[in-house]
Amino acid sequence: MIHPLEAKSRPTSCVGLARHFDIWYVPDPFGHIPSNAATMSSDTVALAADHAGYELKNILAEELRARGVPVLDLGTDGPDSVDYPDYANALATAIKGTRAKLGVLICGSGIGVSIAANRHRGIRAALCHDTLTARLARQHNDANVLAMGARIIDADVAKDCLDVFLNTEFEGGRHLRRVGKLA
Question: By CB count within 10 A, which of 80, 112, 135, 183 is most buried?
């Protein structure tokens, strides 16, 4: 067996980085594997929003379903005032529990949900306002959550950001070391 540091290819994931530096990588610090992990779809996208973002969330959910992407809608489902941390926490839990591979969070500005989501180990939520920030979030930061502000960008820009976010791969390379330090 070749030692990870002698491997010719560069690692392109957190697991690969852990192997490269010969350290353990355990997404769940308690080592739990959800009983339904085998039945979860690795391409499911979770969506959640507060009252300011629920309309945009529904538009993006429709867009994803039209493309045949499985959607996990975590609410909210109306304009009644709710607390954005509750929805950010639900989405982070869904990703950490393998119910979804990627997530989309929406509130009025996108700031609150991104702060709340980033409190969770293993979640890399990026607040994006255009396709450049959406691309760089995935390409350089291996973001697994796209955060947007419904009062900041319109539905067309949000759809474009979502498309770029879902279709951009993590570049790895020099960025892998940096992303590894976030865990």
Answer: 112
What is the reported pLDDT for 173?
A: 87
Place of tokens 């960025």: 175
Contacts of 72 (CB under 8 A, 6+ apart): 44, 45, 46, 47, 94, 99, 100
The domain that holds 107 is classified in CATH as 3.40.1400.10
Among candidate residues 32, 129, 140, 175, the one labeled active-site is 140
Q: Could you give the CA distance from residue 52 to residue 47 in angstroms, rounded to a whole number?
A: 14
User: In this structure, is residue 21 part of a structural domain?
Assistant: no
Report pLDDT for 12: 52
Which residues of the chain fall short of a pLDDT of 70?
1-41
**Could you confirm whether 140 is annotated as catalytic?**
yes
